[in-house]
Amino acid sequence: MKILSKLRKSERGQSLVEIALVLPILLILILGSMDVGWLLYAKISVAEAAREGARAVSVLDATEFVNAQSVALGKATVVTGIKVVTVSPSTYTKGSQVTVTVSTKISPLVGFLPSTILPDPVTLQSQVSMRME
Asked: What is the reported pTM?
C-alpha cells in the first residue's frame, strides 16, 4: 500500500509525457515553415529571373528570337534548375511588348509535409511583359 501512495504523489514522468505530446506538433510546424520559406524564396527568385530576362531583352538590341531567348536564359540562371524560358514574340520592333516566361519545378527542402498539402515537385512560373525601347 505504501508503494501505491508514493506513485500517486510522484510527478517524475509528467514532463516526459508533455514533451511526447507536444514534440510532434512542434516538429510539423517548424519543418513545414522551413518548406514554405524555401518555396517562397524560390518563387521570388523565379520572378526576379523573369524580370531580369525581360529587362535584358527589352533594353538590348536583340532583334533575333534566338538571341533574345539566350539572353533571357542567361539572366534566368539566378535559380538553379530552371527548365523553361520562353520569350515572345519572335520578332521585335521598337515600342512593342516582349513577354518572358520562366518556369521550373522545385522540390521542397525538407519534404516533411504530405503531398496532399505540398506536392513534390512544386511548379513555379512567372511571366513579365515589358515594352521594347
From this structure: 0.71
Q: What is the pLDDT of residues 102-121, one digit of tens each?
A: 888 888 877 776 777 777 78
Residue 63 pLDDT > 60: no
Domain ranges of the chain: 14-131
How far are the Cα atoms of 21, 24, 27, 53, 55 from residue 123, in angstroms, in the given order?
Answer: 35, 29, 25, 19, 23
In the numeric block, which cell numbers belong to residue 64? 533575333
- Rounded CA-CA distance 75/93 in Å is 21
CATH of 14-131, one of 2.60.40, 3.50.50, 1.10.12, 3.30.1300: 3.30.1300
Q: 106 has which bridge partners?
A: 122
The helix (run of H) or strand (run of E) holding residue 128 is strand 122-131
